[in-house]
Design goal:
mainly alpha; Cytochrome Bc1 Complex, Chain D, domain 2; 2 domains; two-stranded antiparallel ribbon; 49% helix; elongated; binds heme C
């Protein structure tokens, strides 16, 4: 009786022929293992989100580092850098977003693309696009043009959070109101 391993398959590629051998066990176990691992990985990270995917973990590390750095700078003078750090801390940005959604959307729209007030997502600024300049515009307003001086009703901390949130809109370049002011 001829055994399975002696059966030559009937294809022939440039003189190369093939036996119909059984796949080795070590090879099959790697295959099955990979399938099981892939399925678990997919369920864990994608379907149920039990674990953080690498990019989410990365974002969290960056946010925590920004938060720690900010805490170390507490009590120091506010700078462009400290506002940019704040714009990386989700809790601060969320607080700014909540204030923005309540007070700013009627003129700047929810996505910041502008209506009565200018588009905050483009690269052009009437009063400067540096973090401190943006904060200053929010704080002091432009009363003659209809932009309220928010510093009269909100604490300096809340003005910081608003500026941090506007910094997250900056550079999104959403279609909306045409650019006003000077390109940065
Ligand atoms: C009643 C309408 C109105 C509301 C509400 C409003 N803004 Fe404005 N905002 C304006 C106008 C108009 C300008 C442009 C001022 C000018 O032309 O000098 C402006 C300008 C700005 C600028 C500067 C843009 C630039 O190009 O330099 C920022 C930043 C800004 N607003 C943030 C905010 C934030 C944050 C809030 C909410 C706390 C807010 N605004 C609420 C009308 C408004």
């Amino acid at each position: 009786m001829i055994s399975e391993k002696d059966i030559v398959l009937d294809h022939n590629y440039d003189g190369i022929q093939e036996f119909d051998n059984r796949l080795p066990n070590w090879w099959l176990w790697i295959l099955y293992g990979s399938v099981v691992f892939g399925l678990c990985y997919w369920l864990f990270y994608q379907t149920y989100g039990v674990g953080d995917a690498p990019e989410v973990r990365y974002e969290k590390v960056i946010a925590r580092a920004a938060e720690e750095q900010l805490a170390r700078m507490a009590g120091q003078e506010r700078t462009d850098e400290s506002l940019l750090l704040m714009a990386k801390v989700p809790a601060q940005v969320d607080a700014g977003r909540a204030l923005f959604e309540k007070n700013c959307v009627e003129c700047h729209l929810a996505d910041g693309s502008g209506k009565i007030g200018p588009n905050l997502t483009d690269g052009s600024w009437i009063h400067g696009g540096k973090p401190l300049e943006i904060r200053h515009t929010i704080d002091k307003g432009v009363p003659a043009k209809g932009m309220v001086a928010w510093g009269r009703q909100f604490s300096p901390m809340k003005i910081d959070q608003l500026a941090a949130y506007v910094l997250t809109l900056k550079g999104k370049n959403l279609p909306g109101k045409a650019p006003e002011g000077e390109p940065e």
